[in-house]
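3.2 Worked example (two chains)
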Amino acid sequence: MNILDRFREHKVIGGLVDWERLEEILKSEGIRLLDILGKGHRGVVFKGIYRDREVAIKVPRLDAKNTIYQEGCILKEVNALGIGPRLYTFSRDYLVMEYIDGITLKDYIISGDIDREGYLNIVKEVLKQCLRLDIHGIDHGEIQGGKHIVLKPPRVYLIDFGSAKIGRTPRNFTSAISLFFGKSHIARRSCEILNISEAERNHIIRFAKRYKEHLKNSYLFKSPRTCTSNSQ
């Protein structure tokens, strides 16, 4: 039994993927499948080899709205800002991107002793990337929770732009502030690692609220941009 046949019989994703179409994609793009990485609300992600690189291959779920092309367009745009896994190629029913072999912030925060300076650099990098997205009118949509922030030293990646939108007021920076300094477990742990007092945390939250109001009043990116698929 080859690996594709084995995946067809997978208890969770077996009925979620158009396997005939996936087989066509693998042949046309010269991709070799290695493993299943997981499933989201709208897609299933595999690990594979493409042009001698380890990649993640995302295809739409049969039982959900297909947003693969939109995600590819947005990932192409954020790559130009130095954000996200590198996009290699995409179409309306598949997306091939860099495979990030790292640890999510959600898992990292509970991993034990964490160096303050190292963690401060992580927070700064996430906030900088979120500000960059805000400035360019791209809303990731799922910054909170920490599972879409992946650490692969020395890089910090924002991943999974499947819920991202262009044309709505972006909330990336304020979502990141809430993630690191709000009321969640990640926020409490972050303040502990960074030695931030309750008064300092409240000051940060007030600043984020003022920023949010300013952004809402001055937001200019109301029109979606056009996009074409490409290969790299």
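3.2.1 Second chain
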Amino acid sequence: MAASRTTTPAAVQRSLVSDQVFRVLTEAILAGRYEPGEKLPTQRALAAEFGVNMASVREAVKRLEQLHLVESRQGEGMRVRDWRSHGGLDVITHLLFQAGGFDPETSRSLFEARRLMLREAGGLAAGRRTDEQAKLLEELAAGFARADDDAAAQGIDFAFFAVIVEAAGNVVFTLIMNSIRDIYFEHAAAFTPMVSKRRGLAPLYADAAGAIAARDADAASAAVEAIAAAHTKRLTQ
């Protein structure tokens, strides 16, 4: 008999429960309710506390380990790790949307880093871009100005910066951009103010595309940074 291609209802339910346990524990660790080096309750104790089965707790703990938030050692149980020392980009989403809200401090840090990265990417792109990339940026800038709604504008906005980062030819920037993409589209509604009321923004995209096409690194850096700064201002007002 061929294996089923669908997930069983029991597996779906377990996954949903595991997600809830994972979110609660992640928020507790990031909020400092568990200190670095502190032992977590045993998996059996956590299962009893949450009223769930052991399989759901094991799945949640595995995800915590993947984020480097906890470390399990044979005979020593689970200890909380210092996420500031061991965490990676995957932690950003959980910091940004703690308890379902939008954390302003993390938001400021994220967009400060984004602005600085995109500024450098703009300058590099001006020197390294291909003719095809320059043409695509000009088309995307024009498309942003014509976008019918915020959802379309968000898609074009991300595509515009993705091309800039690709043209910059820096693999680390590309990987960071991939992480930002996941945050951006999974929580698109939270970032809508960045691209709403596009009349004032559209010329900035055209300026950036033009500077990159002209291979003017200084102008490209300044133009791209101007867009990123406008995004930050709109989101933090």
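3.3 Remarks
The mean pLDDT is 87.
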